[in-house]
Amino acid sequence: MVSSTAGLVLSCNAAIAWEAGKPLVIQTVEVAPPQAMEVRIKIKYTSLCHTDLYFWEAKGQTPLFPRIFGHEAAGVVESVGDGVEDLRVGDHVLPVFTGECGECAHCKSEESNMCDLLRINTDRGVMLSDGNSRFSIDGKPINHFLGTSTFSEYTVVHSGCLAKINPLAPLDKVCILSCGVSTGLGATLNVAKPKKGSSIAIFGLGAVGLAAAEGARIAGASRIIGVDFNPKRFEEAKKFGVNEFVNPKEHDKPVQQVLTEMTNGGVDRSVECTGNIDAMIAAFECVHDGWGVAVLVGVPNKDDVFMTKPVNLLNERTLKGTFFGNYKPRTDLPSVVDMYMDKKLEVEKFITHRVPFSDINKAFEYMLRGEGLRCIISMED
Ligand SMILES: NC(=O)c1ccc[n+]([C@@H]2O[C@H](COP(=O)([O-])OP(=O)(O)OC[C@H]3O[C@@H](n4cnc5c(N)ncnc54)[C@H](O)[C@@H]3O)[C@@H](O)[C@H]2O)c1
Ligand SMILES: [Zn+2]
Ligand SMILES: [Zn+2]
């Protein structure tokens, strides 16, 4: 099947970020057809992840404007470029900020999802194949973001960054599995791997951190300690199995010391989901010597440096980091969607707000105020 718009330049609405920190402007963009190994998709629902907010604020990140942000979304294939064999018009897909070419050493390794060709690149604003953007306004190119740019009714994505999912899955729910929830869940289940009955500290109780907590609950951890500055998060976090709370602002000693004292020498595991360098260091220093494992998930500012005494490592603590919870997007993401379809994973409790595309700036306001977890932005109404 070929859609009637295949091969044509499409005009549609997109939310353009013209300047750092300024409200997005919804306006008409031209979206070029997909080139070799690319796919053009119609976005149905998208949501806002903190990574979008960081690059939009561009305080500690490389500024690149004008740009179309957005990477957590669900859509339907509109047309495919040459060489795309495994996706067809009408397939339901989740775009992912990191890809899977299937050919490189990373894709062939069971241990890695850091594809050589399609791994996350936050500074690139163009498509890989020809170094050009597929978006333009009056002939002037608009930058892509993370190879996904889902704050547009249509977008062009490399086929290696699209997971084909169960067509029965409701796209207004599973869109959040395209980044935040899978990232947190996988950080715990695939990387931290807490044992049954163990203790774990989760730094940052946004959607990513609470998905990490959900993973800890599924794995059978018994002490799930949530660490956040924002006390509004604590009530919500109880629904995700978090059963103890620490607000670093309420203590006059470093939070790593508070956690070490609470747990008789340190937590068995920790997962950092804040993007704050001090939280990253604390998350490492609060794990127990001999066996503790800390996992970094938050995206740091580009000049941040991780400082700790080497003896903390010598004392048999492990520090790891992960993108996308170590899931391979094309191979593994469909099974995370099936976990939701089989009712093993609850997605609804992460969705606290919904807005039409025309109100996309409200999603930014909620996140800036630390209100709620995920806001679904609907292209359908
Ligand atoms: N590695 C990956 O693959 C990946 C994927 C998605 C998101 N991320 C990153 O994960 C992080 C969380 O994303 P989110 O969408 O859940 O964000 P969010 O804004 O919803 O939540 C972050 C939480 O961290 C808390 N926080 C900030 N600094 C803190 C500190 N020093 N100590 C304790 N709590 C602190 C905030 O109060 C907030 O509740 C971000 O850094 C985001 O960029 C990484
Ligand atoms: Zn994200
Ligand atoms: Zn690869």
Automatic annotation (TrEMBL):
Its cofactor is Zn(2+). It comes from the Eukaryota. Keywords: Cytoplasm, Metal-binding, NAD, Oxidoreductase, Zinc. Residues 37-165 form the Alcohol dehydrogenase-like N-terminal domain. This is alcohol dehydrogenase. GO terms for molecular function: alcohol dehydrogenase (NAD+) activity; S-(hydroxymethyl)glutathione dehydrogenase [NAD(P)+] activity; zinc ion binding. Its main location: cytoplasm. Belongs to the zinc-containing alcohol dehydrogenase family. InterPro entries: ADH-like_C (IPR013149), ADH-like_N (IPR013154), ADH_Zn_CS (IPR002328), GroES-like_sf (IPR011032), NAD(P)-bd_dom_sf (IPR036291). Its EC number is 1.1.1.1. GO terms for cellular component: cytosol. Pfam families: ADH_N (PF08240), ADH_zinc_N (PF00107). Residues 207-339 form the Alcohol dehydrogenase-like C-terminal domain. GO terms for biological process: formaldehyde catabolic process.
